[in-house]
Amino acid sequence: YPSLGTAAAGLSEKVVGVYLLPIMTLIVYVGLLLVPKIEHYQKNLEDFAEQFWGFKVILVFAMGIIYAATLLPNLGYFTRLDPVLIVVAAVSMLFFYVGNMLNFTKRNHFIGIGTPWTLANEKVWGKTNQLGSKLFWICGALALVSMVSPADSRLWLILLPVILVVIGLFAYSLVEYRKTKVIHDNRRRKK
Question: φ and ψ at 162, to 5 degrees?
């Protein structure tokens, strides 16, 4: 990051390092607090309010762990501890919780696997989020496995599965939607 005007070189990096993650966490948390107020499917959000509240708690907790794991060694504390391992554990915890939460989500625009096709059809929403639940658990497990893998492969064991899951769920929801559309169209023709 460039130095801010007359500030000593390196000071802006310290300021960014100290404040960026807490500010980002606060912005995301406030955004999640606003979701029920702006969501079209408010009743559906109420149906899994406990899991949604848990997600907010787990998210803030994980971000706090990541913040502490990156800040404390730079302050001279816990210098023998590898902060990357703590960050990976926190990310795994998020994946596991998201995997659990997807089992409970009801159709909405903000929480869950929301593609045009899942939002258009309740059955497609259910099937896609059930599959997403299992796949996010696998992502969490792979993230944990990455903790004992060589450091240069760690990022790939976390990011690649998530990218593949997102692409796969997008395609899966389209295929499921087309199946339900064909079934619905066939029923119409028979009448």
Answer: -65, -45
